[in-house]
From TrEMBL:
Residues 1-27 form the signal peptide. This is Carbohydrate ABC transporter substrate-binding protein. The keyword rRNA-binding does not apply. The keyword Protein transport does not apply. Keywords: Signal, Transport. PROSITE patterns: PROKAR_LIPOPROTEIN (PS51257). Belongs to the bacterial solute-binding protein 1 family. InterPro entries: Bact_solute-bd_prot1, SBP. It comes from Pseudonocardia xinjiangensis.
């Protein structure tokens, strides 16, 4: 997704870029805060910020793909850090982030901190530029205490932790309408077989069960990579998935072919799709933002997409367990494999090890920041952002689907795997994988699509 906060939520918003400087009058923790809290409201409690020291007069620059209006809760979440430490955070969001960050690094003028939307890009920056600084001790301690191992691994390169996750996404969701299900007498499926039975029942009753869309500008095709990754996990388990993602097994191997054919049993089935939007060929031309909307008028009933899809429902939509829309986990296929949740995230990489940069990087990996960010989003009425930080209180999140996502991420009994296309080399994950899936949905055979991707895998990677 070109995970923008991961890439996909920013695409979902379709928004303009901008540079926003935060120029609050601040005072260091232990000194006097601005009287009455200044223009930002009541002065914060600064006890948790004492560990960062007196940073008065320092500036930290942040570069990211997260742009308006999703940027505002981020900006607001820095205010307590600024007021308590005296540091100033200068935030720059750009639609051109992924193209421009390597240029800035190579030119010797990187930002202090960048929110890197894919582990693959982080790995490339570490290995090819040597400019990314290893995570400081404060970040490492927070990651070990508050994050699942999957996220630590995704932020590490060659065994060294470079970046903690920022936001996180649960990809393994199917959106549906609880109100429509209740009216029709449908129940949420708990296995793939039950989901197929439900789909067949909807067809028998004259409906189209599924709707889907993969159009996303230059990133067209990415929703299909998530479909394939989820099915790979459910058919083969996390160990085979890891082998596929690292190219220990070929991209066009038999397990992958079988998984893509299973995806095709849904998305290439004209009886199943594309409810309210056209025949299966319309999947390629329907934007991913629009793809789930037919659920609201019951021209489709099921839409596989991540938690961040919440941002695309029209204003006033009741997103709740008994509401207009909600989501359930994509159910298991093979009872012999553990149910594994597909996740994504962006990561906080630093290009400077100045004390104020390390302090802010540590803050962004802390429970204090995760809760400030959640509360800032809720105050603005924004939904779709969640952290994998187990110190996050789900009650601070804006909506039931956000709280469900946080509970899944915080459940120690869950097995997670990171978005495969985000982990693969860029020449595959955000290039031929997207294109190959687009060609496949428009008529290319499974064998030809997967062979095309396999032949693009860089030698030695």
């Amino acid at each position: 997704m070109p995970a923008v906060p991961s890439r996909r939520p920013t695409r979902a918003a379709g928004l303009a870029s901008g540079v926003l400087a935060l120029t609050l009058a601040v005072a260091a923790c232990g000194g006097s805060n601005v009287a009455g809290g200044g223009p930002t409201g009541p002065a914060p409690e600064c006890g948790a910020y004492a560990q960062y020291g007196d940073l008065n007069g320092t500036t930290v620059t942040v570069y990211t793909s997260i742009i308006t209006p999703e940027d505002q809760p981020h900006i607001d979440s820095y205010k307590s850090f600024e007021q308590c430490t005296g540091a100033k955070i200068v935030y720059e969001g750009s639609k051109e982030f992924e193209a421009q960050l390597p240029v800035r690094v190579q030119a010797g003028s990187p930002p202090d901190i960048a929110f890197v939307p894919q582990p693959g890009l982080l790995s490339t920056l570490v290995r090819q530029t040597g400019a990314v600084k290893p995570a400081p001790a404060g970040v490492a301690a927070n990651v070990d205490q508050y994050y699942p191992e999957t996220f630590k691994s995704a932020g590490s390169v060659d065994g060294t932790l470079y970046a903690a996750p920022l936001g996180a996404n649960v990809k393994s969701f199917v959106w549906y309408s609880p109100k429509a299900f209740q009216a029709k007498g449908y129940t949420v499926p708990t296995t793939w077989a039950e989901m197929t039975t439900l789909s067949d029942r909807i067809v028998a009753e004259g409906g189209k069960p599924w709707c889907a869309g993969i159009a996303s500008g230059e990133a067209t095709g990415w929703p299909l990579t998530d479909w394939l990754e989820d099915v790979m996990l459910r058919e083969n388990g996390p160990q085979v998935y890891d082998q596929w993602v690292t190219h220990a097994i070929p991209f066009n191997g038999p397990q992958v072919s079988a998984a893509l054919d299973r995806v095709g049993s849904v998305l290439k089935n004209p009886a199943y799709v594309n409810g309210g939007l056209g025949d299966p060929s319309s999947i390629a031309t329907t934007t991913f933002q629009d793809a789930g909307l037919p659920i609201l008028d019951e021209t489709c009933y099921l839409h596989r997409q991540a938690n961040f899809y919440a941002a695309n429902w029209p204003e006033g939509t009741d997103i709740s367990e008994n509401g207009d829309v909600y989501a359930f986990e994509l159910p298991p296929i093979n009872p012999a494999t553990p149910q594994t949740i597909l996740v994504g995230a962006e990561f906080v990489a630093a290009f400077s090890d100045r004390p104020e940069v390390q302090a802010f990087q540590s803050y962004l990996s802390s429970p204090e920041w995760a809760n400030e960010k959640a509360k800032a989003g809720t105050a603005l009425g924004q939904s779709g952002w969640v952290s994998a930080n187990t110190g996050l209180d789900p009650a601070n999140l804006a909506s039931p689907i956000d709280r469900l996502t946080a509970e899944i991420l915080q459940d120690e009994g869950n097995t997670f795997r990171f978005d495969g296309s985000d982990l693969m080399p860029g020449a595959v994950g955000s290039a031929t994988f997207w294109r190959g899936m687009t060609d496949w949905i428009t008529g290319t055979s499974t064998a030809d699509a997967l062979t095309f991707i396999e032949q693009s895998w860089p030698a030695g990677q």
